[in-house]
Every structure is written in structure tokens, then in C-alpha cells.
Amino acid sequence: MAPLPPRSGDAVFANIERVNAELFSLTYGAIVRQLLTDLEEVDEVNKQLDQMGYNIGVRLIDEFLAKSNVSRCADFKETADVIAKVGFKMFLGVTASVTNWDADGMSCSLILEDNPLVDFVELPDTCQGLYYCNILSGVVRGALEMLCTSY
Known about the structure:
Layout: H1 10-15, H2 21-39, H3 42-68, H4 76-92, E1 96-99, E2 109-112, H5 134-150
GO cellular component, one term: Golgi apparatus
GO biological process, one term: macroautophagy
Protein name: Trafficking protein particle complex subunit
């Protein structure tokens, strides 16, 4: 696998219309708060955030492919690297590191050093077990599923 240029997502990120990061973070917090009020169970909120993210990822992949000029990835490791360095940069303005690969090379962790979703967030004790950023897992899952069906 050829290494990605270190700033490959920067050019695309600079040309994408985006909402102020603080506004996005506050809006996301309001969505999570409303889900907690409506659904009352933290496990149900986690499922709903994942499903919302999945629906976003299914639609987001087309924009990613159209604007990133990324060619087809050779394997899952390269795909994870593109998601971490280009995808997160394009849509969140941050990059992730790819770690914790399993022996088969089929499972890994994407670690965000700076997560814009958690700005201004302080969870109360009643939210134990809430996967606050579960929407990101859903986005990645939805996008990857669409990639699998399109190739």
C-alpha cells in the first residue's frame, strides 16, 4: 500500500462548505439531549445514534468519492487509512490514527485525538453507558457498507 500524502484531506476540506464547528457541536448536543428525553433508556439512545450515523454514512460516501479524488483502495488497511486521514479531515476537520489491528487485519480502532463533537459536553451521572459519539461509528459503518456494495 502506498502511503497517503500527509495532507491529502486538507485541500478538499478547504473547499467544502461547512458549518461553524461550535454550532455543529452544540446542535449535536441538543440532538443527543432530545433523544435522552424522548427515549429515556441510554441503550436505546445509543442504538438511535448509531442508526442516524449509518443513514448519514450511506449518503455521505457519494460526496466523499466525488470530492476526494481517492482511487480504489487495495485492502481494508488502506481503506482505514483513507477514512482516518481524508474522510475525517473532509467532514470534521480532524484526522484519526488507525491502531489496534487484529491478527487477521479485519478489525481496527480509529482514534480521534481532537473530537469536535465533545466540545462543551459534560455528561451527568445519569448518562452512564451513553456512547455520546456513537453517530460516528454509524457513519463509518454506513459508508463502508455502501463501498462494499458498489465494488
